[in-house]
Amino acid sequence: MRKQLIFLTALLIGLTTMAQKEEIKTAEKEIKNQNFPVAAAALEQAESLIANVDDKTKAKFYYLKGQAYFGNGTVTENYSKSGIALNEVIKLEARTKSFKYTDDANTMLNKMIEKVAKDASAAYEGQEFSKAARDFNLVYVLSPRDTSYLENAALALYFAKDHHKSIELYQDLLKMGYTGIFTVHKGISKTNGQDIYFATKKEMDQQVKLGIVENPQTIVQESRKATISKNIVMNYLAMDDHKGALEAVRKARAQYPDDYNLLIDEANIYYSLGDNAKFKEKLEEAVKINPTDPSLFYNIGVLTLEQKKSEEAIIYFQKAIDLKPDYADAYNNIGAAILEKNIAIVDEMNKNLSNFKKYDELRAKQLKIYREALPHYEKAHELNKSNISTMQTLMGIYENLEMGDKYKALKDLYDRIKN
Fold first, then answer.
1. Domain-wise residue ranges, the chain
2. Exposure b/e, 56-78, CB count within 10 A at least 16 = b
3. What is the CATH T-level fold of the domain 16-160, as seen in this structure?
């Protein structure tokens, strides 16, 4: 009984192999007659059992499948199936050291890659981001070694507002260890002065020796991993998913603790969440990394002023001005910080309305504060003459200090702008 079962199994395998070979012959014939859909259908019928055949037959099968779906090269919807099959041929023949179909497979792949990459770039430039994403992704399917196209697809999906898919592709890139690091070899043509790029340093050096090229350079592009992490965060923020964004930025910062842009992203997320204490903490951390950014000192000053720490806030605003002398908002906020002192005086004045001596003393202190704030508001107005808020405060100071001429001139400008 056992021998009979073995015999039957062998018979079935033999029949299966014969059926596969018949389908492959049919497909080969239909491809020659350019009946590509019929050829593809025949191969699809045989594919479920292709694992049982020898490598030589497998290579032929995948090559014919690539041909059938490539057709005459005009039906881009079939490129994905063609590319997967042709890449399987190349991989199989590289393993078996038999290269019967590899050259032809590469020729078809290169034709598809060139067309789709061109279409993808045109769609991206035309802001057809969904189409660009599909095409960039297809280039990656056709040429899996070109992972930069997968990054392009993820970026296009971000602009297409398909944020979940964009995050998925970016995470795939990180999982596969993609860095985006690559080396560029280039020189300048002695004939026309244009940049010339080379596949290898050896090729570039040969051209330099021949006197065709000068100023040779080998440039190593920086890793893209931190940028990818940042773009994942940007996708979450675009969806107003601050929790997801915060989790993503924390993971990224664990890998890149000194990355300034990621730190600013983290600070901005805390700001969006209304956590001003954390926002300020992250800005102060950012100042240590980049002490020449005036906006950092300005924002810390704003948060400090909100905490009613006027003198400390003024120090931060002044640091912002030292770095950016035309920082109108910083001048304005120094004036505002000085006027904070006026709040307590006004309260005291209201309590001493019948005590004329005390009231006059308090009024004198109030005018002193106005005079102290005045030059800062005037400088802010000088730098930004369209700021309505600054003009209103400045007019109030002029009025209190009985500076009638300045008040009238500013009021005229204010009325013209407001109307």
1. 16-160, 183-220, 312-419
2. eebbbbbbbbbbbbbbeeeeeeb
3. 1.25.40
